[in-house]
UniProtKB/TrEMBL annotation:
The gene is rsmA. Its EC number is 2.1.1.182. It is found in: Cytoplasm. SMART domains: rADc. It is an enzyme of class 2 (transferase). This is Ribosomal RNA small subunit methyltransferase A. InterPro entries: KsgA/Erm, rRNA_Ade_diMease-like_C, rRNA_Ade_Mease_Trfase_CS, rRNA_Ade_methylase_Trfase_N, rRNA_adenine_dimethylase, SAM-dependent_MTases_sf.
Amino acid sequence: MRAKKSLGQNFLQDEGVIHNIVRLINPQADEPIIEIGPGQGAITDHLQASGAQLRLIELDTDLIPKLESRYAQAANVRIDHMDALQLELTGEPVKVVGNLPYNISTPLLIKMLYQSAQVSKMVFMLQKEVVQRICAVPGQKLFGRLSVMLQHRFDCSAHLHIPPEAFIPQPKVDSQIVVMVPKVNPKQVPLPELEQLVKQAFAMRRKTIRNNLKKIVTTAQLEAVGIDPGQRAETIELTQFEQLTLLLTDADH
Ligand code: SAM
């Protein structure tokens, strides 16, 4: 079968890599797991064999009959032909995993962020740079919107570098796995407001935080949460973004 570039199809073929990913997912019998983009089943076969209650979300019309026949005998597999960006989680927290099509990874991560209460753990293979962005800390060049937003709700860790040779066809970039576990007690901050603030704060990376936020925040408000108005957003701590959001939303009421 020809891989479709538009659907970000790079199929895993390295058994060692597949084994390591499955180990990080750590599937358990009867636990609910959603796999996004099962493709030809490289990871799926192992998840199915664990006895987990699997829900597969695949957009490619050509792959659906193949998946249906591959798992025809498996009572623990349900296949949904749909766009993962339309996924609405309800009920008990579920593991969400996948070797994601790189073109939807950022919107999907943001979508999952808004549904973090319905997630028990996420294990995603992503472009290495995206994983580095997610896990970056203040002071690092890649620290930005994705780092602040995802670290606000999840404990994030980077694992396993995966070279292009692990896939057919080979992607142009290196890949890496990120594991994200919802925080037990995330600070209660309204997400849309935090997202808006962070977006503004990083709008022009070379500008100071005062300049990027001058329409919405006063110097006194920055100083109230311990931010020097001359700092750049990439040096500001997650807790300071959270506090600033709270200060602004409280001031609105
Ligand atoms: N899991 C397989 C593997 O590791 O070999 C395939 C991974 S491939 C990088 C990404 C998969 O996601 C493909 O099967 C592709 O058709 C599917 N896909 C692409 N866009 C999607 C979307 N919006 N929603 C659900 N699946 C999508």
